[in-house]
Amino acid sequence: MQRSLAIAIFVISFAIIASIFAIPRVSLERDKLHQKEGIGLVMPSQVAQIIALEFKGLFADAVFSRAMTYYGGKLIRGEKTTEEEWDWIYRNMDTATDLDPYFLDPYYFGATNLAWGTNKVKEANLLLEKAFKYRDWDWTIPFYLGFNYFYFLQDNEKAAFYLMESAKRGTSSSLIPILAARLAYQGKRTENAIIFLQEIIRKTDDEAIKKAYETRLNALKGILFLERAAAVYQERFKKQPGNLDDLTAKNVIREIPKDPYGGKFYIDKDGSIKTTSELR
Amino acid sequence: MTAVWSVALITFKEGIKNRVIFGIFIIALLLFAATTVVITLFMRDIVKVAVDLSLSTVSFAGLLTLLFIGVNLFGKDLDKRTIYMVISRPISRSEYLVGKFLGIVILALTVVVFLGLISAVPVILSKRFYYYPEARFDWTIYFIAVIYIFIKLAVVSAVITLFASFTSNSFIALVLSLVVYFIGQSTESVRLLLTSQVERIEVSPVLSYMVDIAYYIFPNISAFDLKTQAAHGLSISPSYILWTMLYAVFYIVIALSIGALAFRRREFP
User: What is the DSSP code (8-state) at residue B136?
Assistant: First the structure.
């Protein structure tokens, strides 16, 4: 009895010590294995949706966090993310958001990193457009979209559209409506900008902010007035007016409206109405 | 009715005394504890991740209870031959079956109520930890989702009852119930996959028919999964609640009636 107890204690303590030695070796070998493993495959979302059963949300969390930690690991080690890996990250975010289309993190992570970390603005916008469809209460999504269109793609018209949507969703920032209106104007959508600002003014309680909006609204109204006058001139005389004084000289309009920002309206080379104040 | 009730009560007592249920509770509590650690790894939608984990844990624990305890509660009477004692009493076989079903459902209800209430703790902690202003969360919808976990478990219990009524041992009943659970969770996704990809991939009409038939035969368990709605505070319409509840009730009635018919004709070894 005594002897068997001693043997048992010896065997157990030997096994414990041996396993303590083995654990770091195992993690070392695992690391080597992981390095070889690389990014691996992304499960197509149709398949993932079926095998995730009722745990689609959890599955989405797992797919997202796997890609995020992989990218984070590369970032910490100071390694450059390859084109192939970016593609993998995008597809992971796509699958995660197919499993749970309302999940913000993959949209946010994908949209910011794909646009800024590499030149994958198209993919970033695809993700954001999906988010725009599902997260229909979240003003930040169209805001990011608008920014990407404005900054990376120089598409002011689309940028204005998304910023307007962002403002409609009740953003707390008073700058977004002004920005949207400004982009809309530059994208030759003066009428939209006016309607948009009128809508925003209606919803604004703060008098100071209201005043700022109204100034811009008046400026845009002046521009719209002149744009229409230029169009009438074009129809009547079959040529573009050289400058705004042509409009008053030929009696298309009585007088040129004043720019509430203190600048002067003029006709640019491409025929669009601009102002020396640049609406600032 | 008293006969049904006493069978239900005995079944429930037998189930709650089972040691496996403590194991399941410990697993669930560990998963709740893990939730509070896991959420720190995420960026903004932290409450959503906490809700996912909490509700999945409740659902998972409920399923384990049904599959490991519920199935055995049927088998025991047959394996240990105690069924002879029961059927010699003034109780019809259908009453016995319904009683067993009710006992398992009460067991599932206990698990869901207990774990459902505890599951709110990680969610509260996650809300305190970080709540993204554009996130949406609503306790009403959260607890509707918890109730729906119970409804799902009730439907699975009915399926277990059906299989237990005619299979000769509890392992076969377990496997069949698991298969029905898997099919019930995925028919909707498979149907969606088939209809959405018609233009790209040629799907044989036989396959489509088979999936359609499966959709009508097997319970659509994914209809009772409101975890996404709870995680994002998406509203659930009253008509959704009405129709899914009706569906659940009728499915249970159908499964139990067929089970009772099979059980009545059954000969015991």
Answer: -
